[in-house]
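To the structural biology subgroup,

Please find below the input and predicted structure for SRPBCC family protein, which we are adding to the shared reference set this quarter. The sequence is reproduced verbatim from the submission form. If anyone notices a discrepancy with their own records, reply to this email rather than editing the shared folder directly, so we keep one authoritative version.
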Amino acid sequence: MIILYAILGIIALVLLVAAVLPGKYLVEKSTVISRPSAEVYNKIADLHHYRDWNPWAKTDPDAQTTITGEPMHVGHKYYWNGKKVGEGSLTVRSTVPSKAINFDLVFLKPFKSQAIDAWDFTEVDGGTKVVWRNSGAFPFPVARLMGPSITKQLNTQFEDGLRNLKEMCEK
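Predicted structure (tokenized):
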């Protein structure tokens, strides 16, 4: 009986910790790229360039990918299915040419989740300030428990991705 109470206590403690952890997240990183905003925007808004700069996409070079729709327009879509990256898609949701683009990010496997991937491009002295944001929900309880680790990984990927994008654009 004591073992049963101990197990129930541990479960209750884990659920309590999950309940107090954030249910949503926002990751935001920025850099300045020494190129005009239209050039930088085109590298993001045309998903044919996605694998060239995105570190997450590079983790599974054998993943099957399909790109559909007209680049830089609503509905343009990058679909993937791979052993390391799972299955999902990134679809242009809205766009303001050379200024902003928003994507719907959907993961189907290994777990279902949705997020918004948003980009802003602002002309500054010497180039373009690029801001990359990703926001979504951490469902209760497992994703909330994994939230700090997921957020840390996203921060690292965004830093690497912006560095890759900068190198690609400034070549």
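Summary notes: The CA atoms of residues 96 and 161 lie 22 Å apart. The chain has five helices and seven strands.

Regards,
Lab coordination
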